[in-house]
Design brief:
By secondary structure, the protein is mainly α. 79% of the residues lie in helices and 0% in strands. α11 packs antiparallel against α12.
């Protein structure tokens, strides 16, 4: 229980520091928010009146306090470019990006774990070399390259999936999955490479331990030894690394959603930065950071549940 409370306090403190950094960085960006709203040909008196009404002339500490208080009460403001409440936009776009994140993580784990186990079981053989080469290829090539390959192969040549666009899950969930599959596959291949190497490294160490030799000496089948005993002990670090890669996914998703014209959280962040929508930039950065932090917390708690040694410690 103490471990959980300490982790929660750590997350809260980190999110507090993120609000400070986000607010500071967005306020030193070039440009005038009032002019973005009213245009460059606006009357100076009207611009000054708008700055006054938006509180842009208030001290930065006052503006920061008002922003944090608004987030805590659910008032995230209105987007300057979309003219919609930011909270509504975030819910819509976060749900769209969550589909890609979940699908890409699923693809990565489904491919990486068997491939890493296969390499560890056949260490220093052609299977290990094949697995390592595949992982190295995935790590070396950038995500946008895989995205272009997905579009050429599965959208243009085969015509199995759409190359761009987004469908609201509430209207057509299967259509959402079809539009999200290619960007998810492109991200999943890059992530798969990292997880394959981690699975192979962890499994190699586990297979050399004494309890594995004891299990084999008892006459247990090799399948049982590998998948029930070895993998059960090796999966914890793999899950931890997978959780840490959530931040990587949200960093890469901006490029991928732009490439596939997929209007999710990454696309929204890009539009906010492009148009200097200050309230939207602050909100998207904070939400992504919060999601990454909470995901890492969930992974840590899951690790505690999987490994009794941590609970006993």
């Amino acid at each position: 229980m103490t471990y959980i409370l300490n982790r929660l306090l750590s997350v809260i403190l980190t999110l507090f520091l993120i609000t400070i950094v986000t607010f500071a960085v967005t306020n030193i960006l070039p440009g005038d928010v009032a002019m973005m709203i009213m245009g460059t040909q606006s009357n100076p008196e009207a611009l000054e009146g708008l700055r006054q009404s938006l509180g842009l002339n208030d001290p930065l500490l006052v503006q920061y306090g008002r922003w944090v208080a608004g987030m805590l009460t659910g008032d995230w403001g209105t987007s300057l470019i979309f003219k919609q409440p930011i909270a509504e936009l975030l819910v819509q776009k976060a749900a769209a990006s969550a589909v890609i994140v979940v699908m890409s993580m699923t693809i990565a784990l489904v491919l990486a774990v068997p491939l890493g186990v296969w390499a560890a079981v056949h260490r220093d053989k052609w299977q290990d070399t094949t697995s390592s080469t595949t992982a190295l290829l995935g790590v070396s090539l950038p995500d946008f390259f895989w995205g272009i390959v997905m579009i050429l192969v599965f959208a243009r040549w085969l015509g199995w999936f759409p190359s761009s666009g987004f469908v609201d899950p509430a209207e057509d969930f299967l259509g959402t999955l079809r539009h999200a599959f290619l960007p998810s596959l492109a991200l999943g291949l890059g992530l798969m490479a990292h997880l394959t190497r981690m699975t192979r490294s962890t499994m190699t160490g586990i297979l050399n331990q004494e309890f594995i030799r004891v299990a084999r000496a008892k006459g247990l089948s090799e399948r049982t030894v590998i998948w029930r005993y070895a993998l059960a002990n090796a999966i914890g670090p793999v899950i931890t690394i997978a959780g840490l890669q959530i931040g990587y996914l949200f960093g890469s998703i901006i490029v991928m959603e732009f490439l596939f014209s997929y209007t999710g959280m990454g696309w929204l962040t890009y539009q906010a930065l492009l148009n200097r929508d200050l309230p939207l930039i602050q909100a998207t950065v904070f939400v992504v950071a919060a999601v990454v932090m909470l995901t890492n917390l969930a992974v840590d708690l899951l690790y505690v549940a999987i490994d009794p040694r941590i609970r006993l410690g």
